[in-house]
Amino acid sequence: MTSVPLFECVPNFSEGRHPQVLAAIREAAIVPGVSLLGFDSDSDHNRSVLTLVGPAEALLTAVFQTTEVAVAQIDLNSHKGVHPRIGAVDVVPFVPWRAATMGQARELARQLGEQVASQLNLPVYFYAEAATTSERVNLQDVRRGEFEGLAERLLREKPDLGPSKPHATAGAVAIGARQILVAFNVFLRTQDIKIARAVARAVRGSSGGLLGVKALAMDTRSQSRVQVSMNLVDYPRTPLPRVLEMVRLEAQRFGVAIAETEVVGLMPQAVVDDVMRYYLQMPGFSRDRVLETALLARDPE
Amino acid sequence: MTSVPLFECVPNFSEGRHPQVLAAIREAAIVPGVSLLGFDSDSDHNRSVLTLVGPAEALLTAVFQTTEVAVAQIDLNSHKGVHPRIGAVDVVPFVPWRAATMGQARELARQLGEQVASQLNLPVYFYAEAATTSERVNLQDVRRGEFEGLAERLLREKPDLGPSKPHATAGAVAIGARQILVAFNVFLRTQDIKIARAVARAVRGSSGGLLGVKALAMDTRSQSRVQVSMNLVDYPRTPLPRVLEMVRLEAQRFGVAIAETEVVGLMPQAVVDDVMRYYLQMPGFSRDRVLETALLARDPE
Question: Is B83 marked active-site?
């Protein structure tokens, strides 16, 4: 039983096609005390996500090391992918986990920002709970214009830290603190990206849909289908099954079915609970009704 | 790390209405090394189920003690309930769990049978993997005629152990060994028991439905609904979501919807995995995509 505060960090790298680069990034995350809980790579998005958990100092070391490798090995000038991005290391959110506070997560974001700006010469934007201005709370605002528009944008407005011009190959980085979110992607059985856009618009909170949902259409036609890529930023109030069913309904308007879904990174157990209760209409479900979980909780002999 | 064989035992008691009797039964299960992982009681069924896990000897002690209490305190002559039963302790299945074999589970069933027959004077039927004849493999055959028909039946055929007449108040007991099953109940939003019967007949393997499903209609009209009560005896090949959707389709023929569902006892994690993959159309789901599970598996700091 330890009460050392634990944090999750989910750095997003603009690279999903070169296994050697990804191996180097993963390697850089190996730090005693830090666990790599997940690794997701997508070649259409041309993007990869590490899910790291650890105590503050060790986690900071791991994330800085991965950033260093990514900045050295990724060149955004030749990067093509369907996911918006401003940097080689595009987004780095810190999430307070066991015994940790949002204030501490924000402090970690600040520390990483200082280090990255001074040692790697990257422009740094703080976003979400680490934002310094209301215009930078939303990641989509921070990322507007993407890597290609960054030079012009930095002429107009200073970043939070670092130089007022993009890193030549690595662009800039958005570093933040936030609560857990669920990155939930739904593939539609069509190649018509306009349908994915219409569905994304319908379910997205900012355009009239569900409050806790951010959504973008992604062109994954290389897989003969398109994607509605979502962040469920308030999954306790806007649970995943309700979002999925709304996507299904909106896609049905076009006669299009859901092909499959995926979660990028990890999902909280609460999502599993929601799915069991919703689709099985089983209000009594709880994880201690699962044999393996109950056995784990069993008193030692 | 221990490799002591562990068994699950799920004794079913014909009592679901008197909290004091149930408390006494639970009390009797308290034996060092044995965990009570679940307790389900249903007043319509007038039946309760304990889910116990432990090593052979301790588990046998716990189950015998609960049987002793139940035989002393339950009188089947005044028992009314919608679930078929032949005894105060109606069914006692042993399930091989970690590092245990079916042969060992069968041996446990035999030992409990000997003890119960000689010390409590109960007629004992061995069923499922512990059956001594093919006519007693299926529990429904063992239970045919119920408590009320037991005296006449015992005149015609001897039980496996114990006297050839019913215990005056406790009837007889079916003791067996089997693999894990999922006890899955679906409530239909109707008070017409004939609809539950038609649905049970349609989904039940023995009458033309799904191979791995046993199903009975239960009159739970006291709750303004009826129940299709199922055992999924081969949930890897006949997974729960497919069963639920077949119940839904068959009920829809009568214009009847599903009100809710429940699992009695515990469900294996594989059921959760099936539900996530089926309803979310998420082939990539695995439990290590769940934050809490991934954290548990995390290397110690």
Answer: yes
Which CATH number does B6-177 carry?
Answer: 3.30.990.10
Q: List chain A residues with CB under 8 Å of B32.
A: 301
SS3 annotation, chain B: CCCCCEEEECCEECCCCCHHHHHHHHHHCCCCCCEEEEEEEECCCCEEEEEEEEEHHHHHHHHHHHHHHHHHHCCHHHCCCCCCCCECEEEEEEEECCCCCHHHHHHHHHHHHHHHHHHHCCCEEEEECCCCCHHHCCHHHHCCCCHHHHHHHHHHCCCCECCCCCECCCECEEEEECCCCEEEEEEECCCCHHHHHHHHHHHEHHHCCECCEEEEEECCHHHCCEEEEEEECCCCCCCHHHHHHHHHHHHHCCCCCEEEEEEECCECHHHHHHHHHHHCCCCCCCHHHEHHHHHHCCCCC
The tens digit of pLDDT for each residue in B165-209 reads 999 999 999 999 999 999 999 999 999 999 999 999 999 999 999
> What's A182-289's CATH class?
alpha beta
Q: Do B33 and A298 touch (CB under 8 A)?
A: no
What does the pLDDT look like over A41-77, one tens digit per residue? 999 999 999 999 999 999 999 999 999 999 999 999 9
Taking CA atoms, what residue in B is nearest to A58?
Answer: B301
User: Which residues in chain A have Cβ-Cβ distances shorter than 8 Å to B280?
Assistant: 240, 244, 261, 275
Cβ of residue A298 closer than 8 Å to a chain B Cβ: yes
Q: What ranges do the domains of chain B cover? A: 6-177, 182-289
Q: What is the nearest CA distance from B29 to chain A, expressed in angstroms?
A: 15
Distance separating alpha carbons of residues A267 and B280, to the nearest angstrom: 13
Q: What is the ipTM of this complex?
A: 0.87
Rounded alpha-carbon distances, angstroms, from residue A222 to A218, A259, A265, B139, B241: 11, 14, 22, 54, 31
